[in-house]
Amino acid sequence: MTDLTLESASRLVSARELFGIDSSLRVPVFTKSDQQVPEIDPAYRFNPEVTLAILAGFTRNRRVLLQGLHGTGKSTHIEQVAARLNWPCVRVNLDGHIGRLDLIGKDGIILRDGKQVTEFQEGILPWALRRPMALIFDEYDAGRPDVMFVIQRILEQGGQLNLLEQNQLIHPHPYFRLFATANTVGLGNLNGLYHGTQVLNQAQLDRWNIVASLNYLPLAEEVAIVAGRVPQLTARYGEALLESMVAVATLTRQGFACGDLSTLMSPRCVIAWAENTEIFADPALAFRLSFLNKCDEAERPLVAEYYQRCFDQELAESALPRLALA
User: Which intervals hold domain AAA+ ATPase (predicted)?
Assistant: First the structure.
């Protein structure tokens, strides 16, 4: 890994210049690159409020928790901010297989000079704390209790990690940053969408300095995102097709909010639908394969009605004649 020193991050750049948001905040940008820096997605669209929250995390070393429904681009939002700051970034999914030893480290057997010796191997936290690194905990509300209590100590400002196994006290690097994403805000699986999520300890939740919410974008902005992801489809059929697709997704979200549906279309699902439409040249078939088959059978007639409203066409009918391949 490149040795990113304090001097290499001394260049301050206006947030307005980098992200086009109305703010006088000046953010540090590393002048040296690193293999852990995410790639820039030029088509990514930033939410101004969430971007400011994330920038506060990078600039002022605030602990930022980003909450929102699935597919809104929470982790990607943090990564794309990091990409433009040239800031190394690592994501860790707190699934049920991540345990305390994965975070802290454990003794392992290695070969040295042809002999097997026991040596302590650092876990994720000591490795990240020693570096100028943005560490993102994905699915934060799905973490096991023993894992969450390990994280709690480093949530405090300037939080240090005491490695009892090695009798070491690790001071975080001045440019270490901590972020997390969650589908819930620590209340557990209330709506039935997110099995496996836990009710978070309120003492730990209180240690997050900033909690931002990322919701689904307005129709025009979501259409622009899908158009940027699948430019070939837009070039061939225009944005009218994408507007109808996003309109269907919006109706599913409204239906979910009213309790009529038990699932909804995320922007990620809309992008998959657009990509599949490009493959099959048939939005109806692509819709069935991308979303409808995921729905409860009792709810499929309502979803088909949403499709009919937006496309003025029964879902059972093929769209191949209208979208014939060139």
Answer: 60-221
The letter for the amino acid at 251 is L
DSSP assignment letter at 190: S
Q: How far apart are the first and last CA of the chain?
A: 48
Q: CA 74 to CA 260: how far, in whole Å? A: 26
Q: Would you list the DSSP string of 96-149?
A: TT--HHHHHEEEEEEEETTEEEEEEEE-HHHHHHTSS-EEEEETGGG--HHHHH
Decide the pairing of beta strands 64-67 and 177-182. parallel
- For the record, the structure tokens of 97 come out as 């297989």
The answer, as to whether pTM is greater than 0.70, is yes
Contact 250, 270 (CB under 8 A): no
Q: Is 57 helix (H, G, I), strand (E, B) or coil?
A: helix
Two tokens at 87?
A: 């800031």
Taking only the tens place, the pLDDT of each residue in 76-104 is 999 999 999 999 999 998 876 777 788 88
CA distance 152 to 248: 41
- Tens-place pLDDT, residues 186-216: 554 444 454 445 666 676 788 889 999 888 8
Outline where the chain has alpha helix (H): 15-19, 48-60, 74-84, 100-104, 124-129, 145-154, 202-205, 219-229, 231-237, 239-257, 267-280, 283-290, 300-311
The gap from C-alpha 28 to its chain's centroid, in whole angstroms, comes to 22
What b/e sequence results for 221-240 when a residue is b if at least 16 CB atoms lie within 10 Å of its CB, and e otherwise? ebbbbbbebbeebbeebeee
**How far is Cα of residue 172 from the mean position of the Cα atoms in its chain?**
24
Q: Do the beta carbons of residue 230 and residue 279 sit within 8 Å?
A: no
Radius of gyration of the chain (CA): 23
